[in-house]
């Protein structure tokens, strides 16, 4: 190799210096502009709630609820304000949500491999398996609800829970009013351990998740290996139980009735969310203000109790000394009506049931910011793979959130929703179209001016073109997502 040596006083020196300066400037600019995910294999903590609606966090605008630790996360990180679950092929919406999350596949692709979930895991096409292969120490506790073997999906597993805590008949069709006396009749108490539920086994299940999380953190603090934690609460799924002091935080007279409250939803039976559905049996028909306020009281109480356990998890992470190189993701598998639109469950396509909280905290992630670009909660899975320097596998259909955190746009032009063969929806930045094929009904909402989805515009002549256009887009989206349901001819709908 020939090297050119420049004399100290050569006329080429200024040129050389300028060139070197330019190179350094480009280098420094590139370093300064590095994407926020250019950290060397960070730790990842995934905190997952069950049935938590997007609007149940104080820092995000709910003035009724106390969530100091979720507020703490929202202030430390970036909130994706429009995160969604695609829906479900079964009444247990959480099964479909978690199958999509762990497989990385869209709704109908996830259903196709649902029966073979353990085979998916064994083939390495599974979230936990990807993280193991990347060199992560993996931990899991809490609700699973996937057919794959949880004990083999992670390196360390404690207290795997089923879909929901133990129920009791006394927890349904309540509370009632004694017509002869006008007094409230309610045989069930949210804070009495005798009913089992979240106290089955002696310790509240949310506390069990916190206990194991602290133990995991303690172990992880002693090793150099990066860690991935999957911490899944059953809360705030019913039966919504929490210690009495948490219920006392929400006196029934202070609980507000949802603005979009209805005694009955007109198409509940046709959309398969009627009187026979377990979730809908929790409150009496027709819904009463008292019953809805009571269920919302218990909903808020168990969320606040879970929030306290999340505080313990965050504190234990700080104590590991590894917080600065740890990404935290908080979300829920889907939302819950809990009295909105005359519905109690999540088997519908209104925002209260398909939209979830999603908070991201990590090195250089903007603090206290919100991103309104539409995403799916399952995008967390490929985001973690990118952070772990794993090339996105071909079977993973969801997308990383990192480009959006870097200022990019959503890869989703519109948000898709489905429930069984009874409901379909498409949501754009301006509108949501909901289709009930059995009832031959279409509903249209302007979600910009009507975020609570209270004013159906579908039958107004000035919106006829919008309805037809969105219906056409929905059918095209069905084809793209391998949705086999034939919605039929548009003109059949009322």
Automatic annotation (TrEMBL):
Residue ranges constituting the Sulfatase N-terminal domain according to the UniProt record: 42-390
Keywords, sorted A to Z: Calcium, Hydrolase, Metal-binding, Signal
Coiled-coil intervals: none
Annotated region (Disordered), positions in chain: 165-188
CDD domains: sulfatase_like
Cofactors demanded by this protein: Ca(2+)
Keyword set includes Metal-binding: yes
Recorded superkingdom: Bacteria
Stated family: Belongs to the sulfatase family.
The protein, known as: Sulfatase-like hydrolase/transferase
Lineage: Bacteria, Pseudomonadati, Planctomycetota, Planctomycetia, Pirellulales
């Amino acid at each position: 190799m020939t090297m050119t040596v420049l004399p100290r006083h050569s006329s080429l020196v200024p040129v050389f210096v300028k060139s070197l300066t330019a190179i350094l400037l480009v280098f420094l600019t590139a370093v300064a502009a590095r994407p926020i995910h250019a950290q060397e294999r960070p730790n990842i903590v995934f905190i997952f709630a069950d049935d938590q609606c997007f609007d149940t966090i104080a820092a995000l605008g709910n003035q009724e609820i106390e969530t100091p630790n979720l507020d703490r996360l929202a202030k430390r990180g970036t909130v994706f304000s429009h995160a969604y679950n695609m829906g479900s092929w079964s009444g247990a919406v959480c099964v479909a949500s978690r199958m999509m999350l762990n497989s990385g596949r869209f709704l109908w692709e996830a259903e196709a491999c649902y029966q073979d979930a353990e085979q998916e895991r064994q083939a390495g096409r599974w979230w936990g398996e990807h993280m193991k292969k990347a060199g992560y120490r993996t931990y899991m506790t809490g609700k699973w609800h996937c057919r794959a073997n949880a004990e083999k999906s992670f390196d360390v597993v404690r207290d795997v829970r089923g879909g929901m805590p133990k129920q009791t008949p006394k927890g349904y069709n309540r509370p009632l009013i004694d017509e002869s006396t006008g007094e409230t009749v309610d045989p069930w108490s949210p804070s009495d351990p005798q009913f089992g539920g979240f106290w089955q086994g002696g310790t509240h299940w949310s506390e069990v998740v916190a206990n194991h999380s602290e133990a995991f953190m303690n172990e992880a603090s002693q090793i150099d290996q990066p860690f991935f934690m999957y911490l899944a609460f059953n809360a705030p799924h019913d039966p919504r139980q929490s210690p009495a002091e948490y219920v006392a935080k929400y006196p029934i007279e202070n609980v507000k009735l949802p603005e979009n409250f209805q005694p009955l939803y007109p198409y509940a039976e046709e959309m398969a969310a009627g009187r026979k559905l377990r979730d809908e049996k929790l409150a009496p028909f027709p819904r009463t203000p008292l019953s809805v306020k009571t269920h919302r009281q218990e909903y808020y109480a168990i969320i606040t109790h879970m929030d306290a356990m999340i505080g313990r998890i965050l504190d234990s992470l700080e104590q590991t000394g590894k917080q600065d190189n740890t990404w935290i993701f908080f979300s829920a598998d889907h939302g819950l009506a809990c009295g909105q639109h005359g519905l109690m469950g999540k088997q519908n396509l209104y925002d209260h049931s398909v939209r979830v909280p999603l908070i991201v905290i990590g090195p250089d992630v903007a603090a206290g910011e919100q991103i309104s670009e539409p995403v799916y909660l399952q995008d967390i899975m490929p985001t973690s793979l990118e952070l772990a320097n794993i090339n996105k596998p071909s079977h993973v259909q969801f997308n990383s959130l990192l480009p959006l955190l870097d200022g990019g746009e959503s890869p989703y032009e519109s948000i898709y929703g489905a429930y069984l063969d009874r409901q379909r929806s498409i949501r754009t930045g301006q509108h949501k179209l909901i289709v009930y094929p059995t009832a031959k009904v279409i509903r249209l909402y302007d979600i910009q001016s009507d975020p609570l989805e209270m004013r159906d515009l579908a039958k107004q002549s000035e919106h006829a073109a919008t309805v037809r256009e969105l219906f056409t887009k929905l059918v095209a989206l069905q084809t793209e997502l391998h949705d086999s349901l034939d919605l039929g001819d548009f003109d059949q709908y009322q």
